[in-house]
Amino acid sequence: MTDKPLLEITDLDVTYRDRSLLGFGGRTFHAVKGANLVIRAGETLGLVGESGSGKSSIANTVLGLVPASGGSIRFGDVDLAAMKTRYPPAVRSRIQAVFQDPYSSLNASMTVEAIVTEPLRVHTAMNRAERRDRAVELLKLVSLSEEHLTRHPHQFSGGQRQRIAIASALALQPKLIVLDEPVSALDVSTQNQIINLLYERREELGIAYLLIAHDLALVHHISDRIAVMYLGHIVEEGPSDRVYRAPAHPYTKALLDAVPLLDPAAQRRRRAARKIAPAQDATRVAETGCPYRNRCPSAMARCAQHMPPAYPVEGGGTASCFLLAPDTGGETPGEAA
Ligand SMILES: Nc1ncnc2c1ncn2[C@@H]1O[C@H](COP(=O)(O)OP(=O)(O)OP(=O)(O)O)[C@@H](O)[C@H]1O
Ligand SMILES: [Mg+2]
């Protein structure tokens, strides 16, 4: 690992037109607002948050699938956010992606050999025999073998399909793999196998990951840093252990509390104690103040007036919450809740 950022996202905005309004005049809303993230070479950044918080919007902007409406995404010497056309081959080969649904992301009519060697065919001068040899190597990296080359995606389980998708993503020895909920569609034991596989390959190959998940507990072991999103904002960021053990933002605390308990009675008690309000719709949130204030047990009057800046947190990272302000302005947390 080096200190130079591989990917540096600064003040990133992503806007969409509100889909719930039909016809003309639908207003635009921010799916991502002012996001700042850094990924260093060989590092894993876990990006977590509930559904609709804007995680895929960040991923898709990095991949060039969705345009940024503001800010920059520096990758090496280029600003990806400023690129209006498809990324040039030199960039595309260095950033790869693995998506959530292993059933729809692999072309059903292709053999595993064709899927895994496709990036080699497009981006390298390798001949067919060389590509096949490389495909065998790649399958070994994901604990599959040569005999799988001639099969089709439907002959594999969800976990195996995700292994094939990972093999294909590794083919060009990328610097960064964007993994958008790569294990969310899998059962728990398969989730752990895939996470372990990603961890091992990263250690060997020195790849960086942007790893998106709902569940902080699932990704904190493999992540060097964690960023937490809520309604388009990165509300907390920091070293993985610190965020997991000592979350600073009230939303991160609630997210960790929401990790399922094995005992349903304990879970009911905890829910009752916390009274977590239902999730909010990004398209309906006023764009001033803290996005979490309506659900926050510690909200103060000033939370409605200003977006809290990113305050440094003891142990590393930042959290955007006035509870961390050196001066609380004479307010008592919770009085506006
Ligand atoms: N193409 C689009 N057009 C309009 N609105 C969109 C579009 N894509 C996403 N959105 C909206 O933007 C917000 C953020 O969506 P995004 O998919 O980035 O969230 P997410 O954190 O990845 O959620 P999930 O965990 O469900 O995948 C949501 O309110 C979503 O409905
Ligand atoms: Mg998503």
From TrEMBL:
Domain ABC transporter, residue spans: 9-256
A family per Pfam: ABC_tran
GO molecular function: ATP binding; ATP hydrolysis activity
Any GO CC annotation of this UniProt entry: plasma membrane
Keyword terms of this UniProt record: ATP-binding, Nucleotide-binding, Transport
Membrane topology summary: Peripheral membrane protein
CDD domains in UniProt: ABC_NikE_OppD_transporters (cd03257)
GO terms of biological process kind: peptide transport; transmembrane transport
Keyword Transport: yes
Family matches, as NCBIfam families: oligo_HPY
Keyword ATP-binding attached: yes
Record PROSITE patterns: ABC_TRANSPORTER_1, ABC_TRANSPORTER_2
InterPro entries: AAA+_ATPase, ABC_transp_ATP-bind, ABC_transporter-like_ATP-bd, ABC_transporter-like_CS, Oligopep_ABC_C, P-loop_NTPase
Primary localization: membrane
Family: Belongs to the ABC transporter superfamily.
Location of the protein in the cell: Cell inner membrane
Name of the protein this chain belongs to: Oligopeptide/dipeptide ABC transporter ATP-binding protein
